[in-house]
Amino acid sequence: MLTVRFYEFIKDHAGARMRGILSTSLASGLFMGLTMAVIGGAITEFSKSKSVSARSCLLFVLCIASYYWTLLHSTRVSTGVAFEAIDALQLRLVDKLRHSRFREFQQLDRGVVYAQLTGNTDIVVEAARYLTTGLSGIATLIGAFTYGLTVSVMGACLIIGVLVGCGIFFERWQHQALDLFEEMGASSAAFLSCVKDLVDGFTELKIHRPKRDDFFANHLLVLAARNRRARQLMEGLHANGLAFVATYALLPMGTVVYILPRLLDVSAQQVVSLVAVAFFCLGPAMSFVSFISLSSRAWMTIAALIEFEKQLDALRDGEGGAAPTPPTFERIEIPSGTFSYSEGFALHLEHFALRRGEL
Predict the structure, then answer these.
(1) Is 50 left (phi over 0), alpha (psi -120 to 50) or beta?
(2) DSSP string of 131-160?
(3) Which residues pair with 333 in a beta bridge?
(4) Which residues have C-beta within 8 Å of that of residue 191, sequence separation ≥ 6?
(5) pLDDT, mean of each 10-residue run, the chain (359 residues)
(6) Angle CA 93–99–105, to nearest 5
(7) What is the phi/psi pair of residue 281, to 5°?
(8) How much is the pTM?
(9) Hey, which end of the chain has fewer CB within 10 Å, N or C?
């Protein structure tokens, strides 16, 4: 599962800090669950005495403050780890790129090189941010489910069942989104490579109009259309995902209101309490679903960088040690020299001289 691979990537780079990320993320979820319990108790208290005690207000403030601090700390640390990890990976790629053999370097697709070194790696940091909210959400769901059990066992099980069922459906739908995401990345790299060809070969294309028109019509426009189509499909799938998440947020409450009373003899107070449970489950569940989506796409970005690194490893020129000291000179002179590139081109020099400092 791609989400697990992304988690292991963050864990490997976090080292000892991962324990702090996990503990504060789970603690923030527990504090959110306690907040829900405090609010549920306050609702019960208000229904009986038409007032809420100062003790309940104090507990609410303490839980909210604790939730804020723990979530803030875990988010800062996890995003910091993601920044460090992706920065180290890209710098390693640049270092290996400069040690590549010249002939093989010339054969590299420039679009792929630019896409890997300057691509959208912000998604890795965004996924790391949702890692903390996702872990926090799991703890919150556990707390909400535990509280729901005290209200109605069947009602709590229905809420969790709906959430889990929708989550499984979303996970299967996610595979289609990942295929489109990969296709969009490939088409974007090809279009970027074509644009670079236009810039690098501008002089040649400018002096040859038929070649320029052919390049524009049969290469640039074709790749632009393919890139646009891939992006439109991705955006359409993304819109479907947003609509699904929005609908997904309403299903647990609808289950409690319309299905549970037909299955069990429950009181109005139980229904209200379970609706509150379902409401509190929405944010954590949506955060976890978003983490699955983002982490999968983030891992595909990371995997592409790792694959590119393996490609650069095969192109390494093997030079090592300290750089040689350049020789001192005042003048370089070639009395006579000939260079033949092919049958149709040769260069002959008669008494060539280059002085120090000249270009």
Answers:
(1) left
(2) HHHHHHHHHHHHHHHHHHHHH-HHHHHHHH
(3) 353
(4) 111, 223, 224, 226, 227
(5) 83 89 88 79 79 85 90 90 88 84 75 71 85 83 79 81 75 68 74 79 81 84 84 74 70 79 77 78 76 81 85 72 76 88 80 88
(6) 85
(7) -75, -20
(8) 0.68
(9) C
